[in-house]
Design a protein that fits this description.
alpha+beta; Immunoglobulin-like; 15% helix; 4-stranded antiparallel beta sheet; 3 helices; 144 residues; 3-stranded antiparallel beta sheet; 2 domains
């Protein structure tokens, strides 16, 4: 990652973004996923989770991260001569921008789809009052 970009004196308070970028760079590639733009303010993340039932999966939001976990228990009543289909657990995280909300999650034919919505941002202009370094009205009363 190009650290010089985030070390600019014009980017104040973005240290957390640098940490998030470093964390996502280390992410595992399982399960595979797509991110689809489904509307002007909507996205859908689809993960390929074949073999997982809805009760094997969890979708949570933790510190502005969408976290998807999958955990399967090994069947105790089966004896395998060959086991080529791994039953593995996973955790996949996506960092969410401020204000993005999760609408729903749906499991269909081995694909977990998570619908997200980004609310429209209103332009905000805030005027900051400038105080004079001279005598303030409150200070003048206390000097006498």
């Amino acid at each position: 990652m190009n650290r010089a970009l985030l070390n600019s004196p014009f980017l104040l308070g973005f240290e957390h973004i640098e940490r998030l970028l470093e964390r996502t760079a280390k992410a595992d590639s399982y399960p595979p996923y797509n991110i689809e733009h489904t509307g002007e303010d909507r996205l859908t993340i689809t993960l390929a989770v074949a073999g997982f039932a809805a009760e094997d999966l969890s979708v949570t939001i933790e510190d502005n991260q969408l976290v998807i976990r999958g955990r399967q228990a090994d069947p105790e009543d089966k004896t395998f001569l060959h086991r080529g289909i791994a039953r593995r657990q996973f955790q996949r995280s996506f960092v969410l921008a401020e204000g993005i909300s999760v609408l729903n999650a749906e499991l269909d034919h081995g694909l977990l789809s998570i619908a997200l919505e980004r609310p429209r941002q209103e332009a905000v202009v805030k005027t900051i009052p400038i105080r004079s370094a001279g005598v303030h009205l409150g200070d003048a009363k206390h000097r006498n």
